[in-house]
Amino acid sequence: MLRHFFGFRLRSVLAATALLSCGSLASAFFAREWKSGILWPEPPIVNPGPAGGAPADAIVLFDGKDLSQWNGGDQWLIEDGIATAHKTGLTSKQSFGDCQIHLEFASPAEVKGSSQGRGNSGVYIMGRYELQILDSYNNLTYFDGQCGAIYKQRPPMVNVCRGPGEWQTYDILFTAPRFNSDGSLKSPAYITALQNGVVIHNHLEILGTTAYTEPPRYSKHSEKEPLSIQFHGNPVRFRNIWIRENVHEVSGEQLGGSAVPPPVAETR
Length: 268
Hints:
Distance between the termini: 37 Å
Number of strands: 17
CATH superfamily of one domain: Exo-inulinase, domain 1
CATH topology of one domain: Jelly Rolls
CATH class of one domain: Mainly Beta
Number of helices: 2
Largest sheet: 8 strands, antiparallel
Structural class: mainly beta
Shape: globular
Order of helices and strands: HHEEEEEEEEEEEEEEEEE
Mean pLDDT: 89
Low-confidence stretches: none
Radius of gyration: 28 Å
């Protein structure tokens, strides 16, 4: 009888210990779910495309075949799926505002010149805000003019340039500036840029136009403007250029009432 009594007590203690040890799990199971009170739309499904290719909702500006999407494209040289800068710059026939841009570029494999005279080109978003292209591999120049710089405004956070002739990538998120009806600036442009998969600008405010001869400034322009690629006398090569429009954060509908508050922790 005594053995049975102590055995029962031992089992009771072990059971109580097990319940206590699972208390946090039980609390989590029976906890009241916090809800934001916002009805979110279902994110649309977009096929990301093959590795190295364009997403299904992208506008392909150069797929290796022709430059028919550009003014000036008939002057560039196209061979083996690669477009080489020649005679003039490119300006897209279509205009863009907020967007995501992808392009691949390579400076000439044979090194000629130095500083700004070596592998020079540039991506002009809205035709006026330049992200510099330059051969900045062991090539010293002014830092706000090297590859990855917002020209004459901000150097890249890091220099991640590959060697001459090697292919490099730009992935750009751009928020266009907004203007008031009187022409004054309502909100500036912002850029996030990755070069070769590495962040070189993180939601950087663009101060205005990126000119060589004058300080940056804003002047009112359309909500959408063409994209341009500069010809600066160097045979810089390009491939796989695409752009996605209307890159905005998702917004939801605030339901009636307030958000459901989180559960209050029990104290004992």
